[in-house]
Amino acid sequence: MAQNDWKKSVVYQIYPKSFNDTTGNGEGDIQGIIQKLDYLQYVGVDYLWLTPVYESPMNDNGYDISNYYKINAQFGNSDDLKELIEQAHQRDLKIMLDIVINHTSTDHEWFSEAYSSEDSPYRDYYFFRRSVNNAPPTNWESKFGGNAWKYDDKTEAYYLHLFDVTQADLNWDNPQVRNELYDIINYWIEFGVDGFRFDVINLISKGEFKDSEKIGKEFYTDGPRVHEYLHEMNRRTFGDKDMMTVGEMSSTTINHCIKYTNPERQELSSVFNFHHLKVDYIDGEKWSNAKLDFLKLKEILMEWQLGIYEGNGWNAIFWCNHDQPRVVSRFGDDSTEALRTSSGKMLAIVLHMLQGTPYIYQGEEIGMTDPHFTTIDQYRDVESLNAYKSMKLKGYNESEILEILGQKSRDNSRTPIQWSNERNAGFTSGAPWIDIPENYDKINVETAIADKNSILHVYRKLIKLRHEHDIVTYGSVEPLYMNDENLFIYKRHYNGTTWLVVANFSKSSIQLPKDLNIEGETIIQSGQCENGTIDGFGAIVIAQ
Question: What one-character DSSP code corresponds to residue 335?
């Protein structure tokens, strides 16, 4: 890979709690990541993104930080993290920390001080507002349900929490807050990390506090001073360093994401958006029984591919993360081993040939599936348990609720990595914190490494292609046959070279368009593509 060219990088996301347990307590830890660095080097990725490992009451899986400078004892300590960074660097792997600076835990000392007295200097670190007619200051809704304001009897005031009631939003309009946050980022830069993933970063600038017809989103999504603040953060922290940053963007737009990532604006390197992962929702409702809207998926992916490219911005491209179901179960087919393998390879090829920085979520590279839990007792995710109660109250029957949870629950991606066919999939010597899918005896890292035709080896080749061929990183994208209900077809163009990508999202063999030229050198292939047809879940990339 070209030195320091982060654009040619591939990122591997680690959810530490489910990665590898070295203590036998049933939960993963930082030493467990160190133990598996040789494997991650073998996969070929460049960056390792760790979901939050800071001190936290873990009401939202660590996205509720109570001390930004301290490592959560359940994962280890700062010496463990220092060792992880050093060991990773020896293998040419870089470490990216996940940081949450839109809000803190209510256990954070800033909030404790703010909550203790109206006269506290920390009061203005958050948004406290007086009660109006014994009602919340606005009708904004929390993203976790209910009103976004929590009442405090002692001071007869409310504080804002766009997420859980234990996650109080920080007031970025206060320069002292910004200074504190920049000090935190600089501390971790000095500590040796190589990049940051910024959680819900486009929500940091709040607009007017007024009642809303849209639950409040229009007042804080891509807010009035967000670009000013991100530019200031860039200049005061990572901007002059060789670091990759990615911003998680909630309900954002292409135009804003171009601004966030155009290098001339000095804000962030790249952005996540989630529009393409709502194509199996009914009328925007997550907790619904729906299948993939394939034409919508293509339309959204290509709209962002073209828009960001033309605006000189940068996409993060991904199928999976710790909040999304496993893609091979979601957009592929895991009903048989053959279909799981072919759809897993196809999904890898179609995503990794797109423009942007690809993210692989732990276990995705071996085609891990949703766990297909059969009882509510197997679920741990608070969002899923709340949805279960809500659907019960609406009169849904048990089997219907379990089918919806089986499609949409965040726990689908949070089951431990299946390392081997040994007890507990080699993840822990103790009792795992969440059940492990029964298919671990067949789907595991050891088996995938040994089988040269496994999904893992397709991921390894795709990463190698990105490192070696500039067209994958820098080429423009040309969507083709967008109305085809089975085929995802596009071209990449760069410096007079063209690559054609053809992927079949159907499990049946499909006739190719008669006017499609598939002559050329095959770069990577899964399934047969000959005599004018392509196999079910087949994919091919051809240099023309």
Answer: S
Q: Which CATH architecture has domain 109-169?
A: Alpha-Beta Complex (3.90)
pLDDT for position 92: 97
What percent of the chain has a predicted confidence (pLDDT) above 70?
Answer: 99
b/e 522-537 (16+ beta carbons within 10 angstroms → b): ebbbbbebeeeebbbb
pLDDT at 1: 43
Burial of 479 (0-12, 13-18, 19+ CB in 10 A): middle
Q: Of 29, 80, 164, 199, which is the active-site residue? A: 199
Range 475-484 contact pairs with CB under 8 angstroms and sequence separation of 24 or more: 475/355, 475/499, 476/309, 476/355, 477/302, 477/305, 477/306, 477/309, 477/354, 477/355, 479/298, 479/302, 479/305, 479/306, 480/516, 481/513, 481/516, 482/295, 482/298, 482/299, 482/302, 483/295, 484/513
Tens of pLDDT, residue by residue over 198-233, are: 999 999 999 999 999 888 899 999 999 999 999 999
Tokens of residue 484, six digits: 């085809």
Contact present, 261 and 270 (Cβ < 8 Å)? yes
Portion of the chain with pLDDT greater than 90, in percent: 92
Residues facing 479 on adjacent strands: 490
Please name the residues in contact with 377: beta carbons below 8 A apart, sequence gap of 6 or more.
none
- Helix 226-236 / helix 254-261 crossing angle, nearest 10 deg: 20
Residue 521 is a catalytic residue: no
Amino acid at 414: R
Identify whether 199 is a catalytic site residue.
yes
pLDDT tens digits, one per residue of 81-95? 999 999 999 999 999
What number does CATH give the domain 6-104+174-377+413-463?
3.20.20.80
User: What are 389's two structure tokens?
Assistant: 């109660």
Output the CA–CA distances (angstroms, integers) from residue 188 to 75, 102, 116, 178, in the order listed: 17, 18, 29, 16
Could you tell me where the beta strands, DSSP code E, fall in 100-216? 103-105, 128-130, 149-152, 157-160, 167-169, 195-198
What are the structural domain ranges in the chain? 6-104+174-377+413-463, 109-169, 378-408, 475-543
| pLDDT, position 386 | 87
Domain 475-543 in CATH 2.60.40.1180: yes
Q: What is the DSSP letter of 417?
A: P
pLDDT in tens, 230-243: 999 999 999 999 89
Residue 242, pLDDT score: 86
* Confidence (pTM): 0.96
> Residue 3 — pLDDT band, cuts 50, 70, 90?
very low
Tokens of 310: 């033309």
Residue with tokens 């200031």: 232
Render 269-295 in DSSP notation, one character per residue.
SEEE--GGGGTTSBTTBSSS-----HH
Which of 223, 222, 272 shows the shortest CA–CA distance to 245? 272
Under DSSP, the state recorded for 147 is B
CB atoms within 10 A of CB 105: 25
